[in-house]
Amino acid sequence: MSSSLKLFNRRKNRTRFKLRKMKTNRPRLSVFRSGRHIYAQVINDTEGQTVVAASSLDVDVRTQAPKGSGVDAAAAVGKLVAERAKKAGVTDVVFDRGGYKYHGRVKALADAAREGGLSF
């Protein structure tokens, strides 16, 4: 395993450990970032189910930001996941950035989700 992948996994495990340690019953807003797209989903860990999900592959996002890997697409995904979560009755979440640094696309998604009405 390369050293950068080891560091990524260490950050991911540290983040997830801190989220589990908080012991809140709030759902988790999880982010996955690939080279071409960004994905977000609100997960209810007590039931083990995904409540809502959004990605840069959605038609609503593709019209706003045709390039799925940019900061604009991440912001659109954040707004969309917040809108869908509010419709599902979820307003309080914990933010799971995974192993990604809170910077760039991940930060844009989080800021847009906060503007959309989610609190974390």
Question: Care to describe what's here?
Answer:
The chain is of the alpha+beta class. The protein has one domain: Nucleotidyltransferase, domain 5, CATH 3.30.420.100. Helices cover 45% and strands 19% of the residues. The chain contains four helices and four strands; from the N terminus they run H-E-E-E-H-H-E-H.
Q: What is the H/E order?
A: HEEEHHEH
Percent helix: 40-55%
How are the strands of the biggest sheet laid out side by side?
3-2-1-4
Number of domains: 1
Outline the secondary-structure elements.
Blueprint: H1 3-22, E1 28-33, E2 38-44, E3 49-55, H2 59-64, H3 71-87, E4 94-96, H4 105-115
Parallel strand pairs: 1-4
Antiparallel strand pairs: 1-2, 2-3
Main traits of this protein?
globular, 120 residues, Nucleotidyltransferase, domain 5, alpha+beta
Summarize the structure.
With 120 residues, this protein is of the alpha+beta class.
